[in-house]
């Protein structure tokens, strides 16, 4: 018997992952992507899974870090995004970062070559037609206005939106390495063993204060009237907004100087440090870590060249800003990521209220599997909430605080996991664990439990699909 296709709208992280998962289950997929016929405010190419902000997928430590646990769960679920990231990895300390161009090209090539995938370049400018009886909307934070308006008109919800800012990228050969140096914080090695994955630019107290003054005074992008009251996502604040919150804010955030020693002046403690992370495999492009901004382009070049080591910096890309839109998912979506009022529509990615590349792809992974199982005539339950995948879907479909008036985007973190009591309380010498040591032990136990439970969830699916 022929199987009707699943229609997936949007070829970003979530849409690409959802397409891969459904197609690998044996279900035909039609992936609709508007880039190629219509661009967005932030994308520069028509490649699938293009990274528009950082090139980092964050920590790859699955033993005690929630993001790393999510990475590993997706690996075990044959995740397209996480496996392709590994193939195009660049040095980034303990983080998983990628060559953005190679990564997007590889994802595009894999989906174009899949026998169950058809890619159609077109904009879906409203609610999909009725005969599309299984649809995944994975349009992300840059959902086209006609589709966003149609969805919001159907739900009756007010827009829920925030601004997301993009960090600048610097050419390596324009960095003055007589002032800057290579070192990872605390010399911590990354997956490839590199203990010098970052470039560090030190600032004295006077230089730091002058920099803060310039950030605050710099000319900013002017928002349109309908954008002015849109809140920022706290996890991706523009650098100048952080500066406005207090002169020391940046020194305890992206410009903290701890764990670093300047080999040019080993006896001088930097007051603040700007870090840059490798952005491509060749090592020719470096991303200014945490320096997302809404400064105008002219102000950016003037102000960022105040940083020692970047006085002659040339920028491959300057910072920018765009509006992100997400649903009130706890009210609108069920545990299968279906719209309660129109179950033929599923949603995946940042539009559901998760934040981050990996989290967006994770929701695509689940939506693709849910939709494929439904097409094949069986029900797939969500992963246990003890897993990273399950914790995320639980959060966006009902895990928010009771009585909370607003729903906000969330990265994966152990605070979303159920508590655990079965973890080591004493060290190898019998001494009771306290503080950070106790916290590490608890996180380690939560990570181990998550991977054990995701294996069980995946094994159950394999048994059903084999019958």
Description:
The protein has twelve helices and 17 strands. It starts with 5 loop residues before the first strand and ends with a helix. The mean pLDDT is 90. The chain is globular and about 70 Å long. Strands 6-2-1-7-17-16 form a six-stranded mixed β-sheet, with helices on one face. A hairpin with a 6-residue loop joins strand 12 and strand 13. By secondary structure, the protein is an alpha+beta fold. It has helices spanning 13-24, 66-76, 80-87, 100-113, 145-155, 205-217, 239-244, 297-304, 329-332, 357-375, 388-399, 435-466, and strands at 6-9, 29-33, 56-59, 89-90, 95-98, 117-121, 135-137, 161-166, 169-171, 181-182, 198-203, 272-278, 285-288, 315-317, 320-325, 338-339, 342-347. It has two domains: 6-160 and 326-420 and 448-466, FAD/NAD(P)-binding domain (3-Layer(bba) Sandwich), CATH 3.50.50.60; 165-323, Elongation Factor Tu (Ef-tu), domain 3, CATH 2.40.30.
Name some characteristics of this structure.
467 residues, six-stranded mixed sheet, Elongation Factor Tu (Ef-tu), domain 3, six-stranded antiparallel sheet, 17 strands, single chain, FAD/NAD(P)-binding domain, 12 helices, alpha+beta
Tell me the domain tally: 2
Sheet-strand content, in percent, reads 15-25%
Morphology: globular
Q: Which CATH C-level class of the largest domain is it?
A: Alpha Beta
> What's the architecture of the largest domain, going by CATH?
3-Layer(bba) Sandwich
Distinct helical segment count: 12
**Secondary-structure element order, N to C:** EHEEHHEEHEEHEEEEHHEEHEEHEEHHH
Low-confidence stretches: none
Measured between the Cα atoms of the first and last residue, the distance is 17 Å
Number of strands: 17
Radius of gyration: 23 Å
Task: State the CATH superfamily name of the largest domain.
Answer: FAD/NAD(P)-binding domain
The chain-level mean pLDDT equals: 90
């Amino acid at each position: 018997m022929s199987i009707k296709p699943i229609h997936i709208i949007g070829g970003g992280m979530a849409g690409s992952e959802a397409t891969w998962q459904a197609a690998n289950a044996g279900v035909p997929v039609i992936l609709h992507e508007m880039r190629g016929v219509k661009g967005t405010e932030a994308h520069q190419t028509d490649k699938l899974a293009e990274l528009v902000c950082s090139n980092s997928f964050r920590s790859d430590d699955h033993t005690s870090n929630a993001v790393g646990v999510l990475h590993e769960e997706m690996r075990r679920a044959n995740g397209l995004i996480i496996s392709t990231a590994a193939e195009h990895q660049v040095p980034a300390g303990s983080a998983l970062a990628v060559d953005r161009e190679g990564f997007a090209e590889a994802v595009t090539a894999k989906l174009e070559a899949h026998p169950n995938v058809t890619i159609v370049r077109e904009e879906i400018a409203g609610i999909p037609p009725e005969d599309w009886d299984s649809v995944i909307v994975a349009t992300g934070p840059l959902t086209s206005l006609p589709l966003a308006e149609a969805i919001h008109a159907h739900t009756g919800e007010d827009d829920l939106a925030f601004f997301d800012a993009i960090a600048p990228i610097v050419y390596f050969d324009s960095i003055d390495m007589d002032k800057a140096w290579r070192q990872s914080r605390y010399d911590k090695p990354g997956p490839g063993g590199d203990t010098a994955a970052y470039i560090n630019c030190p600032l004295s107290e006077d230089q730091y204060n002058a920099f803060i003054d310039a950030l605050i005074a710099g000319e900013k992008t002017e928002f349109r009237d309908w954008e002015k009251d849109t809140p920022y996502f706290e996890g991706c604040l523009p650098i100048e907004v952080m500066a406005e919150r207090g002169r020391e804010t940046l020194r305890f955030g992206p410009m903290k100087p701890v764990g670093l020693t300047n080999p040019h002046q080993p006896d001088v403690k930097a007051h603040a440090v700007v870090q840059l992370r490798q952005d491509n495999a060749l090592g020719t492009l470096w991303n200014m870590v945490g320096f997302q901004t809404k400064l105008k382009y002219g102000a950016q070049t003037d102000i960022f060249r105040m940083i020692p080591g970047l006085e002659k910096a040339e920028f491959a890309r300057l910072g920018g800003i765009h509006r992100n839109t997400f649903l009130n998912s706890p009210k609108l979506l069920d545990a299968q990521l279906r719209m309660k009022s129109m179950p033929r529509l599923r949603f995946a990615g940042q539009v559901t209220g998760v934040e981050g590349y990996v989290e967006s792809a994770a929701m695509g992974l689940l939506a693709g599997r849910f939709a494929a199982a439904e097409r094949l005539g069986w029900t797939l339950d969500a992963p246990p909430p003890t897993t990273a995948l399950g914790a995320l879907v639980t959060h966006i479909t009902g895990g928010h605080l009771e009585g909370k008036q607003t729903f906000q985007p969330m990265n994966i973190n152990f605070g979303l996991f159920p508590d655990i009591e079965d973890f080591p309380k004493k060290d190898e010498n019998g001494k009771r664990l306290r503080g950070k040591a106790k916290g590490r032990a608890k996180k380690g136990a939560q990570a181990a439990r998550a991977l054990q439970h995701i294996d069980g969830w995946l094994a159950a699916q394999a048994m059903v699909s084999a019958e």
